[in-house]
From TrEMBL:
Keywords: Lipid droplet, NAD, NADP, Oxidoreductase, Secreted. This is Polyprenol dehydrogenase. GO terms for cellular component: extracellular region; lipid droplet. It is found in: Lipid droplet; Secreted. The keyword NADP applies. Its EC number is 1.1.1.441.
Length: 289
């Protein structure tokens, strides 16, 4: 452990739900590493969190989830610290962005929201397994969205006619399928690691910056009534990360700090397996054994 405390990594921890998650975990005494793609935002988040929580146990490491090279460099930097990893929060994401591709040629929603986290998680799995114990499992928490209920997976044509909402929904469905497959493999290996997926609800964050301006105006006018604050949105992620009730529990879909049912298609074990195999090919990761 670092200074005798638990260690967490939170992707996209500089703003919104991720920031609130980092702040809460740091306040509890965890050593939290923010993984993000903006050095300036990262250092500012670290400064503010240290100021607000009166703890020095938070730091920033650069990680661009739209670049497999950057993800591998981040993992190398983390491993060089020779510390354990007890909690991994896959929180970062983009929503409804204009059509564009990642550094590796994938549609950005799929490449960043899903495939980047798939690679990051797999590269950190050994450390997570070594850090978990029978009484205190290491935990992987992945942030999805209710949009996954309308998502469809088109692995054979990820670069099809672009519609941002469907691309976003597909990436969020992929995260649920990934979590269930991951838990299956972890259980089969007898690992002391659990994987769960959370739905934060509709949260007033910067994710909406690419939404059409009329929708932005309506959002601004109604946010106080319908939208959760980032702090409220982070509550289920934090619950999954630290609650004693979630000790040893994996493969759950959580909303408002309760286990609930995800989309029917997410329970398709063959689809889970196919997605995992294809993702391993895309990101050059071998399936767990």
């Amino acid at each position: 452990m670092v200074g005798g405390c638990a260690v967490a990594i939170v992707t996209g921890g500089t703003k919104g739900i991720g920031y609130q998650t980092v702040k809460h975990l740091a306040r509890l005494g965890m050593h939290v590493i923010i993984a993000g793609n903006s050095e300036s935002d990262g250092q500012e988040a670290v400064r503010k969190i240290k100021e607000e929580t009166l703890t020095g146990k938070v730091e920033f490491l650069y990680c661009d989830l739209a670049s497999m090279k950057s993800i591998r460099q981040f993992v190398q930097q983390f491993r060089a610290k020779n510390c354990p990893l007890h909690v991994l929060v896959n929180n970062a994401g983009v929503m409804l962005v204009p059509e564009r591709k990642t550094e590796d040629g994938f549609e950005e929603h799929f490449g960043l929201n899903y495939l980047g986290h798939f690679l990051l998680t797999n590269l950190l799995l050994d450390t997570l397994k070594q850090s978990g114990t029978h009484s205190h499992n290491a935990r992987i928490i992945t942030v999805s969205s209710a949009t996954h209920y309308v998502g469809k997976l088109h692995l054979d044509d990820l670069q099809s006619r672009y519609r941002s909402l469907f691309a976003y929904a597909q990436s969020k469905l992929a995260l649920v399928l990934f979590t269930y497959r991951l838990q299956h493999l972890l259980t089969a290996n007898g690992s002391h690691v659990t994987a769960n997926v959370v739905d934060p609800g509709v949260v007033n964050t910067e994710l909406y910056k690419h939404v059409f301006w009329v929708v932005k105006v309506v959002k601004w006018m109604t946010a106080w009534l319908f939208f959760k604050t980032p702090e409220e949105g982070a509550s289920t992620t934090i619950y999954a990360a630290i609650s004693p009730e979630m000790e040893g529990a994996g493969g759950c879909y959580l909303y408002n700090e309760e286990r609930t049912k995800s989309a029917d298609v997410a329970y398709d074990e063959e689809l889970q397996r196919v997605l995992w195999t294809e993702s391993s090919t895309f990101s050059w990761v071998n399936e767990m054994h």
